[in-house]
């Protein structure tokens, strides 16, 4: 997400990050580079102009020229301006301040991920907000669209409105709210028909549903990967319907980020959620300040902690930490650790949330070290016997061949996993030997293997 834009901006900042002084020419050069980076990221031209004007006004003042660290001050100004462009600090929550059942209307082009988003939103509201949610498909245009939403509802563990053949979208919407009232639902999510392009007949249909249901939220679902087209779609829907919020899907595939940076300025509507992947739990609140920090390589530690708290098994993590502290760590423990990391998503996304880790992220990308590698390593360990996991030293050539065949990998991959395990085991032994005082005295470098400049024991 935003990789291309992040790389270009950070290469610009690296040139003057540590300088003691900056003159007007340095600032002008930086602004030119930032402008080109934003345009290359497919940010709408009016948004780029406003952004650069805002940064120029602040960066040309005495607060930068007289600052002890002017380079860092410029980065802060760019960060603050980016937060403003993305919608201001803090996530904008859903408006559920209405008489139950609260209607939420989803609109958007066909193929934007609208129906999947309906399932994701239902799961989120049911699990995190503890709401009783009803899903209803108003899509009578696309074959099997109503069946698709019913299947997603089953996966999310929420009810869906029974399908009645021949009903119009307006009739379905009214029936959904009637069922919502009679069966005491908190929220009714209405998934409207998509469209291949802005179609006046279908737009009128959505307007009639909106007028009849008075939704608390009209959420526009757009595909972030379509860039400038997503911005144009948002503008058209907002002018026709008046959307209250935006959901950007396929954010994991949007390396440029132009859609996200343009949406608020073009529509005036906040981005409320972002989606990535097909998993129903892959829907996140949009925090402008966190996204800006990640784009500028400043990390998102708060987001990382929240992700860990949501996905990791606390008891298992504590038990594993205790074993590691005692220097007792076998391949079964290593497998549990890999599974915990996999739950948090791809390694590149986790690293992207750590401050100043852009270079490491690039190295991970080049090494193709991502969730697929973790899954292969888990498969390798799963192909071992309990004895082999507890005593890796017994793994000789014949056993490695059997394990490789059983896990669908190669002997080289088995050897690589064992090497990784040995490195971690050595680190555990050094940690135990140093103790808390030794760690405080020597720092983390004392745990690194000798070739990385750490202490040798």
Summarize the structure.
This protein is an alpha/beta fold.
Notes on the protein architecture:
The protein has a seven-stranded mixed sheet, sandwiched between helices. It has 21 helices and seven strands. Helix 11 (258-267) links the parallel strand 5 (245-249) and strand 6. The chain has 457 residues and is of the alpha/beta class. Helix 2 packs antiparallel against helix 3 (45-59), helix 8 packs parallel to helix 9 and helix 15 runs antiparallel to helix 18. The protein has three domains: 3-86, Up-down Bundle (Four Helix Bundle (Hemerythrin (Met), subunit A)); 102-288, P-loop containing nucleotide triphosphate hydrolases (Rossmann fold); 304-452, Signal recognition particle, SRP54 subunit, M-domain (434 Repressor (Amino-terminal Domain), Orthogonal Bundle). Mean pLDDT is 78; it is low at 363-369 and 436-457.
Walk me through the topology.
Blueprint: H1 3-14, H2 24-40, H3 45-59, H4 62-65, H5 70-86, E1 102-107, H6 114-127, E2 133-137, H7 145-156, H8 169-182, E3 187-191, H9 200-213, E4 217-223, H10 228-241, E5 245-249, H11 258-267, E6 271-275, E7 283-285, H12 288-295, H13 301-311, H14 314-325, H15 331-343, H16 347-352, H17 358-366, H18 371-382, H19 386-390, H20 397-407, H21 411-442
Parallel strand pairs: 1-3, 1-4, 2-3, 4-5, 5-6
Antiparallel strand pairs: 6-7
């Amino acid at each position: 997400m935003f990789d291309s834009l992040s790389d270009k901006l950070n290469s610009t900042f690296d040139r003057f990050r540590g300088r003691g002084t900056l003159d007007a020419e340095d600032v002008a050069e930086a602004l030119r580079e930032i402008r080109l980076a934003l345009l290359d990221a497919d940010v709408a031209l009016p948004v780029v102009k406003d952004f650069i004007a805002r940064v120029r006004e602040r960066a040309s003042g005495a607060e930068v020229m007289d600052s002890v660290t002017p380079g860092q001050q410029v980065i802060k100004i760019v960060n603050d301006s980016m937060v403003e462009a993305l919608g201001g600090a803090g996530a904008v929550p859903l408006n559920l301040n209405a008489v139950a059942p609260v209607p939420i209307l989803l609109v958007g082009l066909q193929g934007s991920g609208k129906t999947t988003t309906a399932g994701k939103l239902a799961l989120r509201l049911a699990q995190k907000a503890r709401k009783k949610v009803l899903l209803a498909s108003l899509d009578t245009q696309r074959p099997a669209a109503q069946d698709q939403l019913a299947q997603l509802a089953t996966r999310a563990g929420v009810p869906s409105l029974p399908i009645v053949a021949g009903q119009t979208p307006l009739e379905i919407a009214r029936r959904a709210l009637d069922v919502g009232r009679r069966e005491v639902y908190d929220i009714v999510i209405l998934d409207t028909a998509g469209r291949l392009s802005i179609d006046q007949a279908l737009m009128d249909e959505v307007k009639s549903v909106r007028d009849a249901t008075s939704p608390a939220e009209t959420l526009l679902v757009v595909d972030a990967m379509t860039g400038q087209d997503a911005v144009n779609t948002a503008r058209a829907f907002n002018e026709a319907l008046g959307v209250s919020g935006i959901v950007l899907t396929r954010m994991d595939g949007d390396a440029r980020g132009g859609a996200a940076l343009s949406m608020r300025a073009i529509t005036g509507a906040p981005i409320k959620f972002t989606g990535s992947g097909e998993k129903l739990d892959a829907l996140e609140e949009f925090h402008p300040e966190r996204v800006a920090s990640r784009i500028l390589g400043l990390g998102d530690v708060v987001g990382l902690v929240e992700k860990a708290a949501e996905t990791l098994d606390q008891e298992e993590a504590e038990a594993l930490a205790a074993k590691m502290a005692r220097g007792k760590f076998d391949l079964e423990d290593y497998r549990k650790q890999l599974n915990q990391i996999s739950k948090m998503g791809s390694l590149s996304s986790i690293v992207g949330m750590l401050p100043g880790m852009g270079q490491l992220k690039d190295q991970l990308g080049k090494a193709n070290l991502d969730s697929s590698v973790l899954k292969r390593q888990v498969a390798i360990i799963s192909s071992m016997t309990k004895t082999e996991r507890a005593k890796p030293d017994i793994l000789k050539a014949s056993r490695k061949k059997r394990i490789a065949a059983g896990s669908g990998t190669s002997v080289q991959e088995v050897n690589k996993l064992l090497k990784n395990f040995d490195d971690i085991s050595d680190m555990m032994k050094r940690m135990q030997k140093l103790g808390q005082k030794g760690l405080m005295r020597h720092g983390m470098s004392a745990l690194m293997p000798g070739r990385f400049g750490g202490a040798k024991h």
